[in-house]
Amino acid sequence: MNFIASKQPENRLLGPESDTQRTLYPYVTGTSVVALKYKDGILMAADMGGSYGSTLRYKSVERMKPIGKHSLLGASGEISDFQEILRYLDELMRNKFNPLWNSLVLGGVKNGQTYLGMVNMIGVNFEDNHVATGFGNHLARPILRQEWHENLSFEDGVKLLEKCMRVLLYRDRSAVNKLQIAKITEEGVTISQPYSLKTYWEFSAFENPAQGAIGSW
């Protein structure tokens, strides 16, 4: 896994918003983002899948971007809305309950302080030592609650995120085995090159997933 320094996203004003309308029916969406604090900063992970309805159509969608030197933003939900957030971040306003169709994870490190939080499309937000969006809320956070601790090293933090992303790959049909992990410290933001996880698909539960199931996915 190789980390590379990230360039700042371009923010361009595309014109007045008077004639635009927010997304009501998302078309191309990304699934979970998982993030945690470690002893030197913040780690965040997201796969690179983009689903067109139920079809996993795109496999190289970047869903994490640096915001200045000290902050990092990851998104699940509608990809075009995430791109609009990046363009208009400095002047983003919520009004008339016309939201952008995203759940966002924001991490930052500055002056020895770390911040990690998330906000959903209607403005519900919170801070914690680890956060997740999408199916990650249900499948990754139980793992994080059990295994996260405040003295987590970079190496152990990466292993923990990979464990979460592997579980999501197994259980979330919208996940793809191509991911990036981002790191933010006092020195700035770096985002890894895309890579794949080692997987094992021979579990008996995978061979007959409906066996023993009672009316549930």
Model description:
With 217 residues, this protein is an alpha+beta fold. It has one domain (28-193): Aminohydrolase, N-terminal nucleophile (Ntn) domain (Glutamine Phosphoribosylpyrophosphate, subunit 1, domain 1). It is 20% helix and 33% strand. The chain contains 5 helices and 14 strands. It has helices spanning 79-88, 136-139, 141-147, 154-171, 204-207; strands at 3-5, 28-30, 33-38, 41-47, 50-52, 55-58, 64-67, 71-78, 102-110, 113-119, 125-127, 130-132, 179-185, 188-192. The strands form 2 sheets. Strands 2, 5, 6, 7, 8, 9, 10 and 11 form an 8-stranded antiparallel sheet that branches. A 6-stranded antiparallel sheet has the order 1-14-13-4-3-12, covered by helices on one side. The protein is globular, with a radius of gyration of 18 Å.
Task: Supply database-style keywords.
Proteasome_sua/b; Proteasome subunit beta; nucleus; alpha+beta; Glutamine Phosphoribosylpyrophosphate, subunit 1, domain 1; 5 helices; proteasome; cytoplasm; eight-stranded antiparallel beta sheet; 14 strands; single chain
Topology order in helix (H) and strand (E) letters: EEEEEEEEHEEEEHHHEEH
Enter the CATH topology name. Glutamine Phosphoribosylpyrophosphate, subunit 1, domain 1
Radius of gyration: 18 Å
Per CATH, which architecture? 4-Layer Sandwich
Largest sheet geometry: 8 strands, antiparallel
Number of strands: 14
Number of domains: 1
- Supply the CATH class: Alpha Beta
- The computed structural class is alpha+beta
Q: Treating each run of at least 4 consecutive H or I residues as one helix, how many helices?
A: 5
Helical fraction: 10-25%
Protein name: Proteasome subunit beta
Keywords: Cytoplasm, Nucleus, Proteasome
GO biological process, one term: proteolysis involved in protein catabolic process
Family: Belongs to the peptidase T1B family.
